[in-house]
């Protein structure tokens, strides 16, 4: 059993912790929190071990949470640490992981040089096996890479042009905006998403633009992919339908928005309304000669979770992971319903 700890128990961390508990070859050591908020209280009541900064122990005890030890002690007990701390904090913690000789994973908010490589399971899993420090790319980059690497199986991708319509904040982030505006993110081209894709697909000609929109449900991507040879729509659709972690939303479902996709997740009984698959609108898949167009939705809170689980196995030297992760987490392929 791989002993996994999660440093940071927020939007990503709590989902990675839950996913770890579902793995047949992993054991959750515990989670690290710096303040005894409602997320820490829920984790404690669910039986998870809580590890805290040494100076915060009394604060947690006063809130009714009995810590299992310090964050340093949690790291000592672990085989792998998943760092899900806020942007920039992971780079500081890396010094501790290195000092203790512990493999660690970092999130997309960290600079790309925090790890030995940027990681996207469908694109470069085998290259990551045996590495000690990996950066799991961001939600938008994960979705883009899954889509590009899937289309690449039909014909080599030559060029990508993409538009990212970003959600303004996660549902719980009530202090963020915008409330009534569309904001270039940034107005200069390319946006950082293209640069992040290039940390995995280093030679790909890709340019992206991004806009922040006043919603908190999901992102939306519009991709124009140029291939080396002409393909048919049927070839692209067949490849997408046969690739796990991508699902197709048929027009006949009547699903025309991200709001309805979230409602579908509720109706399907998905935990936390999570949809870690890339959700491609079938009617948006259009092919003209060597160009492929598609539009898809990205659930920003959950899409990187299976990649984190795969990355745990990669740094543990395990050569196969994706199928095990998909099965344990109920991740699908094919049509969304």
What does this structure look like?
It is a single chain. The protein has 337 residues and is an alpha/beta fold. It has helices at 11-21, 38-45, 57-62, 71-77, 89-100, 121-128, 139-151, 192-197, 233-241, 258-267, 305-315, 322-329, and strands at residues 2-7, 26-32, 50-52, 69-70, 80-83, 104-106, 117-119, 133-136, 157-167, 183-184, 205-213, 219-227, 246-249, 278-281, 286-288, 291-298, 334-335. Strands 9, 10, 11, 12, 13, 14, 15, 16 and 17 form a nine-stranded mixed β-sheet that branches. Strands 4-3-2-1-5-6-8-7 form an eight-stranded parallel β-sheet, sandwiched between helices. A hairpin with a 2-residue loop joins strand 15 and strand 16. Helix 6 (121-128) runs parallel beside helix 11 and helix 11 packs across helix 12 (322-329). The model has no long low-confidence stretch (mean pLDDT 98).
Query: In which range does the helix fraction lie?
Result: 25-40%
Poorly predicted segments: none
Number of helices: 12
Order of helices and strands: EHEHEHEHEHEEHEHEEHEEHEHEEEHHE
DSSP summary, beta strand count: 17
* Protein structure class: alpha/beta
Q: Work out the strand percent.
A: 15-25%
Give the biggest beta sheet. 9 strands, mixed
**Alpha-carbon Rg, integer:** 20 Å
Globally, the shape reads globular
> What is the distance, rounded to the nearest whole angstrom, between the alpha carbons of the first and last residues?
34 Å
């Amino acid at each position: 059993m791989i002993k996994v700890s999660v440093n940071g128990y927020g939007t990503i961390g709590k989902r990675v912790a839950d996913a770890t508990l579902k793995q047949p070859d992993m054991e959750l050591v515990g989670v690290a929190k710096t303040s005894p908020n409602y997320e820490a209280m829920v984790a404690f009541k669910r039986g998870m071990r809580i590890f805290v900064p040494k100076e915060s122990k009394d604060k947690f005890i006063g809130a009714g949470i009995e810590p299992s030890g310090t964050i340093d002690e949690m790291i000592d007990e672990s085989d792998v640490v998943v760092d899900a701390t806020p942007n920039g904090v992971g780079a500081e913690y890396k010094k501790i992981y290195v000092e203790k000789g512990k493999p660690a994973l970092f999130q997309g908010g960290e600079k790309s040089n925090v790890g030995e490589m940027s990681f996207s399971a469908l694109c470069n899993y085998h290259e990551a096996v045996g590495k000690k420090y990996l950066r799991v790319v961001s939600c938008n980059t994960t979705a883009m890479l899954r889509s590009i690497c899937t289309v690449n199986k039909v014909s080599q991708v030559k060029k990508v042009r993409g538009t990212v319509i970003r959600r303004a904040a996660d549902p719980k982030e009530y202090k963020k905006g915008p409330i009534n505006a569309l904001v270039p993110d940034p107005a200069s081209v390319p946006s950082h998403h293209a640069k992040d894709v290039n940390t995995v697909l280093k030679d790909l000609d890709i340019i992206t633009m991004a806009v922040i929109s006043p919603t908190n449900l999901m992102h939306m991507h519009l991709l124009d992919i140029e291939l080396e040879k002409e393909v048919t729509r049927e070839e692209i659709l067949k490849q997408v339908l046969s690739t796990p972690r991508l699902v197709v939303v048929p027009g006949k479902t009547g699903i025309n928005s991200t709001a309805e996709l979230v409602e579908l997740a509720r109706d399907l009984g998905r935990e936390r309304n999570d949809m870690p698959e890339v959700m491609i609108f079938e009617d948006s898949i259009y092919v003209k000669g060597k160009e492929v167009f598609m539009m898809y939705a990205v659930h920003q809170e959950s899409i990187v979770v299976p990649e984190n689980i795969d990355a745990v196995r990669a740094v543990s030297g395990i050569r196969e992971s994706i199928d095990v992760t998909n099965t344990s987490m109920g991740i699908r392929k094919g049509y969304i319903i």
